[in-house]
Structure of Group 1 truncated hemoglobin:
Amino acid sequence: DSLYQRLGGDAGVAAITADLLAASTRDPATRGSFVKVDLRRLQRMLAEHLCHLSGGPCQYTGDTMKQVHGGLGISEAAFYAMVENLRNVLDAHQVAQADKNALLAILAPMKRDIVEYKR
Ligand code: HEM
């Protein structure tokens, strides 16, 4: 029994990813970053990434977090806004508190590779 399974497996991770992307393209704190992005591809890569990180049977085929986000000028505030949106999405999918914390704990250290500005 892995975190991936507790997130709902393939279908759960796909739905969580779709909802997070929907929130990210709506939230004024983050939406500007996604204007020119191929969201279908991003959905696929992000789902792969989350599947891999949570112990699912997936290979992540994208680039490193530093390669992907470098130069995008992402602020710490935007990062925290996305974390907050993910927290809400996981709540909406009734992911247990411990599993939510486990996933967020895996993602938190990536901040240093993603954020370029304090605000
Ligand atoms: C822990 C937090 C985050 C994780 C795990 C994450 C993960 C990813 C992944 C896996 C990709 C796809 C990589 C690829 O295509 O090779 C991606 C792309 C992207 N991310 Fe993030 N991300 C995070 C935070 C953010 C934040 C806070 C923003 C902006 C507010 C952001 C903006 C983007 C954009 C714009 C792309 C698409 C880049 C492109 O295709 O040119 N990400 N992210």
Q: What stands out?
A: Residues 30, 33-34, 37, 42, 45-46, 49, 62-63, 68-69, 72, 74, 78-79, 82, 107, 110, 114 surround protoporphyrin IX containing FE (CB under 6 Å). The helical segments are 3-6, 9-26, 39-53, 65-69, 76-92, 97-107, 111-114. The radius of gyration is 14 Å. The chain has a mean pLDDT of 97.
